[in-house]
């Protein structure tokens, strides 16, 4: 009886020990995995913050360059007239400059100068010009010539009635370079419903005559581009954020653009803040993670680890209790059976891990490029065939880009194959991050890459993507402290009625060779 009682107590203590050890291991594993998830999610948020800040800076920079170029073109006119301004701005519209409301030529004047100024510019082609000075102001900035994108004409309006716009033109004149206003509401939006008004800014570039000549530079006025913030940045933030983050771009307390896809995760540790400088202004870029980002970073793995650990702990405790509670077996045989069971579990896990590893290796060999991790030619062809079938049903179009690196052989010969591998991996990473998540990027071998762009609305979307790829590839690549440079020759084929995957690949390949023959570092579209 004592022996049985002793064995029963020993079995109970063993079960308690197994449960306690299992709980400790489970808690430790959960803690390690959770910290790993937090660290990885933070790294992803940092990448999105840097990428989106760069996108905002780049977009504002491109609009600023447009204003600066227009100011130089207007200043180059010896006797500016209305038809000159129309000719200079004729190629610009809301499609090329999303969010821009108009391009305006502004001149300063005091109240006493208004009649003479009005007569002068009427004589320069704007016969119906009527200047409307803001009351209570002695200095004015009048809209003389205007190229509206939204159908609203405010020629003759005085920017002095909007202190934020006046501040931008004054800073531009004082500094002699581009300036961006604080956030405000455009004069042209006064007649809109409150819900339709957007927080806006104005890009202002000073216009000087005499540039490039021996004559002294003379200030003439400003080229001004009013921009509605949400239309200007909203789509860019949404595209670059890929639905994984919510973003807000603000000028001080005023939000210029906000995108809020998905559901925000209330985790302050993952909130990111950046400050970008554009046109002598500082904009705040704020990012918050969404549930989509956490799903993409395997955020639920820690909970799965805990659940699996608890289940395994309970299972081991139950099995240990059953083994130790057997009245007809000796304690030694119980120990041997437990050891055999543990060994069997360990071997089974090793076999399963080996099988999973072999399965992953086989899949990678079959469908992935070993050097870059991109899809290979076989997987690319399969996805293109499937995408064509889907686009035929939906009525949409897709495009195929063949990308061949220019100058890669020179890098390989000069710096060695290791440097060539670095270049290929870097280009692969740039293609992955520079295109949409829905696009397929593949390496065909050597220095050849291919891209499937799905859901193409208009051909200009494809050209824009090709220009972005050329710019990404052209950026120098650091190898052992020195820059290596390559460029891209791109051939583009656009799906059409009856086109097969082989047809598109053949057309894109031919167009790529045409791009090379035309001088490289460019694209040729086969449509």
UniProtKB/TrEMBL annotation:
Pfam families, sorted: CHASE (PF03924), GGDEF (PF00990)
Domain of life: Bacteria
Catalytic class of the enzyme: transferase
Swiss-Prot/TrEMBL keywords: Membrane, Nucleotidyltransferase, Signal, Transferase, Transmembrane, Transmembrane helix
Keyword Transmembrane helix: yes
Stored InterPro entries: CHASE_dom, CHASE_sf, DGC-Regulatory_Protein, GGDEF_dom, Nucleotide_cyclase, Rev_trsase/Diguanyl_cyclase
GGDEF domain: residues covered: 396-527
E.C. numbers: 2.7.7.65
Signal peptide: 1-29
PANTHER family registered for this protein in UniProt: DIGUANYLATE CYCLASE DGCT-RELATED, GGDEF DOMAIN-CONTAINING PROTEIN
Protein's name in the database: Diguanylate cyclase
Species annotation: Paractinoplanes bogorensis
